[in-house]
Automatic annotation (TrEMBL):
Record domain Mvd1 C-terminal: where: 178-311
InterPro entries for this protein: GHMP_kinase_C_sf, Mev_decarb, Mev_diP_decarb, MVD-like_N, Mvd1_C, Ribosomal_Su5_D2-typ_SF, Ribsml_uS5_D2-typ_fold_subgr
Record protein name field: diphosphomevalonate decarboxylase
SUPFAM superfamilies per UniProt: GHMP Kinase, C-terminal domain (SSF55060), Ribosomal protein S5 domain 2-like (SSF54211)
EC numbers: 4.1.1.33
Alphabetically ordered keywords of this record: ATP-binding, Lipid biosynthesis, Lipid metabolism, Lyase, Nucleotide-binding
Organism of provenance: Lactiplantibacillus plajomi
Residues annotated as domain Diphosphomevalonate decarboxylase-like N-terminal: 9-164
EC class: lyase
Record gene name: mvaD
Amino acid sequence: MTTTVTAKAHTNIALVKYWGKKDAQLMLPQNGSISLTLDKFYTQTSVIFDNQLEQDQITFNGQTLTASKAQRISRFLDLVRQRSGQSAAAKVVTENHVPTSAGLASSASGFAALAAAASRAADMQLDNTALSRLARRGSGSATRSIFGGFVEWHAGHDDASSYAECLQDPVDWDVQMIAVVLKKTQKPISSTAGMARVVATSPYYPAWVQTANQDLVAMRRAIQARDLTTLGEIAETNAMRMHALNLSAKPAFNYFTAETLTAIQAVNDLRANGITCYYTLDAGPNVKIICAGHDTAMITRELSRYFDSEQLIVAKPGPGITISEND
Ligand code: PMV
């Protein structure tokens, strides 16, 4: 029996997106990405390796996962076992603090928390860079959730060179996000399959990589200059180019619903009326609005013409990972 280790990681939203792998096994992305970690949504995971267990036992929000659902997590634990020399099965208890049915990606905070808790429970003492590399193997976006504030994931060219780094934390200026949580629909395609398809079939893919690399340079500057307008413009254009890849894939797919387009139009209308706000979208219908904190009340009031108040969640920049040993 080892010690129970608990880790807490917050989710992040990419401002310059990762959308395509160049190595699926090592989870190396085609281009670097930049994100903002959010305070509202997080995952807390406890791990203990226990010789008495016959197989990994995984509980998610109070429910024991079936073997098939637990497979992705067990595969990740195998990597930790292989690296640490720990051979026992693990008991994993995960609480996901993302509002019920929010449909916001939880793999980022989920695998970041799992990487931190499992590696420490297996007696590996990893620094945040090494943790970021490990989390990457669970889910690409988890690479960035080790850190708080603005974070950049360097694409790299092998396991050692592909990791995230903090660009700014704490975030000492007024930038926030409003998550517009839309009706949960069946995802048309998983992010893994969607990415693979655009890399293989979109004729625009090389242009995406080229412009995403330019976006990284400009985004770094905007963050450093604390320039919300430039940050928002880059993020919005980058998101739409990512979704244009999906529309140009063969066969084409997209994650938008009618409500997604309503939210986009509402942001465009607000901006036409002089409000500094921009949208970004990931592999799902939800819209995230980038704006200043002092405008969130007005923007949510405006959006409440189309959406219920519980669909509008205001989030601030959030912290990096925390790890504690329970006994
Ligand atoms: O979380 P993953 O590794 O399946 O990839 C998610 C990719 C996007 O959320 C769409 C973009 C990003 O960089 O987070």
